[in-house]
Amino acid sequence: MTRVANELADLYKDYYATDRDALKRSLSARDTVRHIRSLSHEPLGRMLDVGAGNGSVLLEVDQAGIASELYAIEISVSGMDRISGLGLSTLKEVHQFDGYQIPYPDRFFDTAICIHVLEHVEHERLLLRELGRVAKTVFVEVPIEGGFRGQVDLRFGHINYYTPMTFLNLLNTSGLTTVRHGIFTSSIAYEQYCSGRVRGWMKNFVRRGALHAFPRIAPELMTYLLAARCVSNS
Questions:
Q1: In the chain, how many domains are there?
Q2: What is the pTM of this model?
Q3: Which of 24, 97, 163, 186 could join 73 in a cystine, given CB atoms 3.0 to 4.6 angstroms apart?
Q4: pLDDT range class, residue 125, cuts 50, 70, 90
Q5: Is position 148 within any domain?
Q6: CA angle 159-139-70, nearest 5°?
Q7: CATH number of domain containing 80
Q8: Is residue 68 part of a domain?
Q9: What is the β-pairing status of strands 176-184 and 224-232?
Q10: Strands across the sheet with 67-74, in order?
Q11: Would residue 41 count as lying in a domain?
Q12: How far apart are CA 139 and CA 181, in angstroms?
């Protein structure tokens, strides 16, 4: 089995050692949980967060009370330390993994989530098939970028970029069936954190308006988020 490249492992080793961007991740996590709930109101049951980072999404899920048990796997030791220090009432285990092999048996989880991870992964289908192996339901979220612009922002370690069509094709050719998906904007709070109060409000207003008026064209012109709820074919 292919392992995560050494340069990526080194990049993320101490990535979460400080509180750098902690608020940004928290705001993003709140958005993510809203997106998950918009795609399904069913309880998440025993849930695995794959590539859990510093645990921001786990914290939001725990506080919302929508999962009975939480598990996390992460390539970064500093991320694991952050997760363990959150004191989550429903957290059962935190493990390090190699970026591809998930150390749990088939169908052990009701739900697996993989949030803003695939755009960083060298071999996405290997990881997606593992998600479908260990969980009955899979939620995935990625940024939608590129499109007509023909470019992608590499500052954040994104080595893959997606349009709605290419991402849904990736899911449906990786042992998963997409049940429902949605294209979302980030919240005003997130945009204002990144761009300032006025500019952030304006960016959010433009993105929302364009998506409402031109739902097919807007994601080709501006960055959005695509979240998908899938079921495993295995």
A1: 1
A2: 0.91
A3: 97
A4: very high
A5: yes
A6: 105
A7: 3.40.50.150
A8: yes
A9: antiparallel
A10: 91-96, 67-74, 45-50, 109-115, 135-144, 224-232, 176-184
A11: yes
A12: 9
pLDDT at 1: 36
Token reading at 231: 């079921």
CA angle (215, 219, 224) in 5-degree steps: 110
* 3, pLDDT greater than 80: no
Nearest-angstrom CA–CA distance, 26 and 29: 5
Write down the residue that tokens 């695509």 correspond to.
226
Q: With bands split at pLDDT 50, 70 and 90, how would you rate the model's confidence at 159?
A: confident
Tell me which DSSP letter residue 160 carries.
-
The mean predicted confidence, pLDDT, of the chain is 91
Residue showing tokens 């025993």: 46
User: Is 50 exceeded by the pLDDT of residue 2?
Assistant: no
Output the pLDDT for position 157.
Answer: 75
Task: Count the neighbouring beta carbons within 10 Å of the beta carbon of residue 43.
Answer: 12
The answer to whether position 209 is within a domain reads no
**Structure tokens that stand for 2 in this block:** 């292919």
